[in-house]
Write a structure and sequence with these properties.
18% strand; single chain; binds 1,3,4-trihydroxy-5-OXO-cyclohexanecarboxylic acid; alpha/beta; 5 strands; Rossmann fold
Length: 145
């Protein structure tokens, strides 16, 4: 069985560290990738960490994960709130998917309160800063044990 977990990042997450640091913190996406790889090593998971600003690319990666990954952790950024296509892509694969957010989207603007992908995923983690990524890896580990 595959031990690879895809950690997928959507739009604007390449700007982490520079982008609204009061909300998203000072870590860069590279820092988050390194923390995920280190946590993955302890959990016995290989991390395939990716970011795209393009919805179709994220959809292609979800399909790819369905073929070759143990599971997916996804921070879909603003596509979380808009994308029926991401919902459908997640529904199309059978490996578990964990939705994650750095910020507590429910404590922010109204338009962030609804997730299009939440009904399609195994579970949701949000509000723990970049630690949300690590919590998502632990969640996937237990969901696939
Ligand atoms: C986010 C929350 C989204 O509402 C926002 O559009 C993002 C980041 C988060 O990680 O807190 O881009 O997914």
């Amino acid at each position: 069985m595959s031990k690879t977990v895809f950690v997928l990042n959507g739009p604007n997450l390449n700007m982490l560290g520079k982008r609204e640091p009061g909300i998203y913190g000072g870590q860069t996406l590279k820092d988050v990738e390194e923390a995920c790889i280190a946590a993955g090593r302890e959990l016995g998971l290989t991390i395939d960490f990716r970011q795209s600003n393009h919805e179709g690319t994220l959809i292609d990666w979800i399909h790819e994960a369905g073929e070759k990954a143990l599971g997916v952790a996804i921070n879909a950024g603003a596509y979380t709130h808009t994308s029926i296509a991401l919902h459908d892509a997640i529904k199309a694969i059978s490996v578990p998917v964990v939705e994650l957010h750095i910020s507590n989207v429910h404590a922010r603007e109204e338009f962030r309160h609804h997730s299009m992908i939440a009904p399609a995923v195994k579970g949701v983690i949000c509000g723990f800063g970049t630690q949300s990524y690590i919590l998502a890896l632990h969640a996937l580990k237990s969901a696939t044990a």
